[in-house]
Give the backbone structure.
Amino acid sequence: MAAPDIHRFACTRCGACCNRAPEVALSEAAALADHFVFRLMVSLYWLPDRPVPGQNADGGFYERKRLLADFAARASPTKAFRDGKRVPYTKYLVFSALAADTRAGHCVALMDGGCAIYPQRPLACRTVPLHYSRGDHSAASDLAAFVASPGYRCDTSDTAPVLIDNGRIVDEPVATARHQARQVALNDRRWSTAIARQVGNPAAADLALPTIAELQASAGAGAMTTTMAPAWRVAVDIGLMTPGDYQALLARQLALLGREIATADCPPTTRETLLAMHTEYQRLRENR
Ligand code: SF4
Ligand code: SF4
């Protein structure tokens, strides 16, 4: 009989993995708008419709496709050249809210070595050491890579609780947070689909969303970000937010932007981004 494949983990709250600002779901951003300056992140992923030769086809590939389909606002069929042949791919357009990195090397909510918003922390933080956008198939290798990160003081000793048991994530808070993250993405689908409809729409040029061509051109550099204003304006258009909610969000982000611009320990390019956001949100407040 094969030995059980058990992986243990406990967080000692050393704070070492709070080394950057978190990425959250669109609808998580409103509740956290007093803590983080959010940017709308637009990501484009390409996946072949079938595993390419040499790619892991043991179910991990299909789990990745299912997860992307759950988190994507739009999945469009396309073709790409592989070994000189045009083969079917799917393009997934994903929207999320990325907190601006306004502190050098750590999340803005990390204070005195601990999370200052622990009960309110984003779902991405609740699923640590795994990420909810990654499948169960890679959980054991993801855990191994995470705990091996320099400076991380996670407890993986024999006394730590079991996180993964024979490929199943059994830690209840982590499993629940992963389930909630997928649920939030599905609940946000109407919103994200409405934003996706404005991508490349000449009538919505004032929303300043990146086009698919721009996203493709930036594929090597990762996703593109813009202010949250387009997402919140679309939310008003489809009745998910009132104009008053939208203005209140702008006001909360403006107050935080003012504090961050005055105190943030960030590179000049980030400061320029914060200043540009401040100018834009002030204009949107004045034009109401
Ligand atoms: S929100 Fe809290 S738990 Fe999440 S990265 Fe920031 S400090 Fe860490
Ligand atoms: S590095 Fe490990 S122990 Fe430290 S806060 Fe992150 S999960 Fe917890």
